[in-house]
User: Fold this.
Amino acid sequence: MGKRVLVIEDEPNISEAVSFFLSRDGWNVFTHSKGNDALETVAHRAPDVLILDVMLPGRSGMEILRDLRADSRWQKLPVIMLTARGHSRDRAEAEAAGASKFMTKPFSNAEILEAVRALAPQ
Amino acid sequence: MNTFNLLVVVCLAYALLLFAVAALTEQAARRGKLRWARSPLIYTLSLSIYCTAWTFYGAVGYAARSGLEFMTIYVGPTLVIIGWWWLLRKLVRIGRMQRITSIADLISARFGKSNGLAIGVTILAVVGTTPYIALQLQSVTLSFDAFALSQERSGFGASAFWVAFGLAFFTIIFGTRNLDVNERHHGVIIAIAIEAVVKLIALLAVGGFVVWGLSDGVDDILARIDSSPIAHWDVRPGRWSALIFLSAAAFLCLPRMFQVLVVENSDERHLRTASWAFPGYLILISLFVLPIAVVGLDRLPAESNPDLFVLTLPLAAGQDGLAILAFLGGFSSATSMVVVASLALATMVSNHIVMPIYLRMISGSGASVSGDVRDVVLFARRFSVAAVVMLGYLYYSLSGGGTALAAIGLVSFVGIAQVLPVLIGGLFWRAATRIGALAGLSLGFVIWGYSFFLPSFGPDVVFSSQVLLEGPFGIQALRPQALFGITGLDPLVHAVVWSISLNTLAFVVGSLMTFPTPIERLQGAQFVNVFDHSAGPRAWTAASAQSEDLMIMAQRILGPKQALSLFHNEVREQTGRPGRPGDLPVPTPEFVGKLERELSGSVGAATAHAMVSQIVGGSSISVQELMAVADETAQIIEYSDRLAMQSRELEKTAAELRTANSKLTKLSVQKDAFLSQISHELRTPMTSIRAFAEILRDGGDLEPHDTARYASIIHDESIRLTRLLDDLLDLTVLENGQVNLNIRRGMLNEALEQAVITAASGEDGHRIKVRRDANSEAVELSTDFDRLAQVFINLISNARKYCDARVPELTVAVQAEEDTVTLDFYDNGTGIAPEARDLIFEKFARMNTQRAGGAGLGLSICRQIMMRLGGDIRFIASDSGAHFRVRLPKDGQTA
Assistant:
C-alpha cells in the first residue's frame, strides 16, 4: 500500500488533476475542498504528505497550517502550500508558518510529484 | 547840564546801546555767526535776571530792616543750582525734547497737553508776576525820584509810565520780532548779559566806595557792622526755612527764570558752568549789601528809604558819577526782569489763551486756518507783552507804591511757588494725573490769594481790617492770616505752609483717585524717564555723534550689513573715495532724508520720521506722530491677522491633502488587493489547463473517456478565462467612462424577455423560475437596451446560481413613475448574509469560491452600467431572499 497524500483544494479540476497524476505514481490520494473542517480531515486521513491551497472557502490555508504546527502530531508533517496569488509576502508568511514547500499556480505536474516524493518520509 | 538831565541822557544812551547790541546780535544770528552768544558764560549771566531791582536796591533795605535774613534769597537758588543740578538737567532735557516754550507749556505737556492746566498756570503766573513787574517799575521810579529830590526838582511821578512804555517797546521789538520754533531770543539774551555785568559792576563800585571811601577799609566796616542794630543775629528758623524754600521754588518756577534756564538754553552742558559761576555771581552781588546797609543807616537821615541806600549814599556823598552808575545798575536789574518776564508771560498768554480762543472763533465762523495765523500769533504776542507790562503798571498805581520792595517780591514768590509741587511731581511721579494737578494748583492758588496776595494790598483795600482780624462773617477759622485758628505765625510762613501743603495734598490725593489718560501716561513716562528716552547731551558741532546714533538705529532696523553698506556708500559719495571702516558720513539733510526713506520701508513712514527726528532734531515725538505710529502698528496687527488666517487656511489645505493622501493609500491598497484577486482568478483556470494539458501530453495509460473529459475541462477553463478577461475589460471601459452607449427607444419587457431567455437556465442544467407581470412591464424607454439587458442577465443568473430554495423562484416587479422606472428582483432563498451585504458590489466579492461560473465582477459591472444609464442599483435589506432594486430614467440621457 502506497503512502498517503491529502489534497485540500477548492478547485475540483485542480484536485482531479493532482489526484490523477499522484495516483498513477502510486500514491494513495485523498481530496478535500473546504477549509473549515480541514483539521478533522487531516486527523481522519493521517496523510504522509499534505498539499494545501492558501485560498479556501471557510478558512485560509495559512491558518490551517499554523494550527497543524501547533499540534504535536502534525509538527513534522510535510506540507506543500499552493497559491494562485503571486505575492512574495505569501511565501514568507507560509515559510514562517512552517510550510515545507511553497508553490505558485500554475505549477508543472512533475514539480509537484518531485516535491511529494522528496518530502514523503522514507 | 545838571545831574538829572545827564542821568536822562545817559539812561537813553544806555537804552540805545542795548537796542543796538540786541539788533546786532539778531543780525548775527540770522547769518549764523552766533557761537560766542551761545557760550556758558552768557548762559550764566542770563540767569542773573534772578537778581532784579529787588536784589539791587531791596536787599540793602531788607538787610537794614531784618539783618541777615536777606541772605535766604540767595541761598535758595544756590542750593538749587549746586545741589539740584540733576533736576535742572532733567528740566532742560525735557524742555528740549518736548519743545517746551514756557512753564505753563511744560505743566500742560506733562499732563496730557491739557490746555485747561496751561491756562491755570498762565493765570497764576500773570497774577504772581504782576506785583513783581510793579516792583521793578516802582524801583525805577523811586530811583528817578531820588535823583529829582536831590536836585530839588519836582517829582517825576510819570516816569513809571514811560519806563513801562519803553520796556514794552523793547520787548516787542526784540522778543517778538518773529516766531522761532525754539522760542530763543538771542538779542534779548545778549542785552540781558550786558545788563547783568552792568548791575554787578555798579553794586561792586558802590560797595567799594562805601567800604574804602566812606569807611576806613574792611576792618572798620566789620566793626561798624558788629556795633549796628542789624547785627543782632535775629534768626527765625520758620521764616528762614520758608524763605529759602520760596527762593529755591522761585528759581525753578518763575516764568522768567524758566525762560532763561530752560527755554533759552542751547546746550545742556552750560548748566555745568552755571552751577559754580552763578553762585559766584550771587556771592559777589551780595558781598556789599551789609556794609551799604550799615553805612546807610549810620550816615543818612532816619527817615530815608533804606531801599535806596545804594543810590542815595553816593548822591549824599556828592559822587554823581557813581550815583549814575548805581542808577544804571538798578535800571538794568529792573528792565532785564521786565523784558524777560513780559516775554515769558506773553508766550504763555498768546499760546494758551489768545490762540485757542482765536482758533475756536475762526473755526466757528467757518473760515479755514491759513498762513496768516503766524501774523495772528505775532500780534497776540505783542499785545500780550503790552498788556502784561501795563498790568504791572496798573498794580503799581493801585497799590500806591507804598509797600516795601521785598514784601512785594515775596508775594510773587509764594504765588509762583504753587507750581512747584505739580512740577516736581510731574517730573518724578508717573502716577500724577491732570485732575490731581488741577486740584493742587487751584487750591494752592486760592489759599495764596486769600491768605497772602489780597491782604498784601493792606487793610481796607480788598479785605476790611475787620475781616483780617475776625475773619469773614466773624468766622475766626477763616481769618486770612490765621487760617483754621492757627495764630501767631508770621504771615509769610503761614501762607507758605498752608498753601504748599494743601496744594501738595490735593495734588497727591487727586492723582491717586483718578486714572491718567493714555496720553498722560505716555507723557508721564517721557518726562519721568526722559534720560532713558533721549540721547545724552549733544553740542551743536557734534555731527559725528549724530551719525553714530543714526548708524546704531539703522543697524537695529535694517540689519548690520545693509546699514553698513548704506553708510559706506554715503561716505564714498560725500568724500569721493571709499571710506575706511569706522568712517561715518556727515548727516546732511539729503542723507538723513534718504535714511528715513530706507527706514520707512521697514518700520513705516511715521515711525521712521519719529525715530530720525528724535535723533537729528533732538525733538520729542508729537501726539500726531504717535498716532501715526499707532496706525502703522494697527496695520501690522491686521497684516499679521491676515497671515494667521492664511496659515489657518494652509493648515486646512494640509489636512485636506492628508485626507487625500490617506485615500490614495487606501486606493493603492485596494489596487494591490485587486491585482492579487485578478492574479488568483487568472491563475486558477490556468492551473487546471496546464495540469490536464501535461497529463494529456505525457500520454500513458489513459482511458479514452478520461482523455475526452480532460480535454473538455481544458476547454471549459479556457472559456472561463476568456469570460474573465471580457468582464475585466468591460469593467475597465465602464469605469473609465470610455463606453459608447447605444441609446434608442424601446420597450422594457423586450429587454427583460431577452435576459430571461439567456440567463434563467444555465449550461449546467440549473434553472430558476422567473415570475413577471406583463402589464406593468409595458413601459417605453429611451436607453441602451443591450447594457440594460446585461444588468438583468447578471441579476437573473446570480439568482439562479445562489438561490438556495428547493424550488428557486425569482420575482420581477416593475413600477413605472412619471420619469423613472423601478424594477425589483427578489428570490425566495435565504438571502445574503448581513456581513457580506456591504461588499457585494465590490470586485471579486463572490460569496464563496465554489464554482459559480463568474469571476466575481458581475455586480460591479451592473453598478457601473446603471451609473452610465443615469440610474442606480441597490441591495434592499430584508429577512427573506436576496432583493435588488434597479432604477433608471425613462428618458435616458447618459450620465
Remarks:
- Residues 4 and 151 of chain B are 7 Å apart (CA to CA).
- The mean pLDDT of chain B is 77.
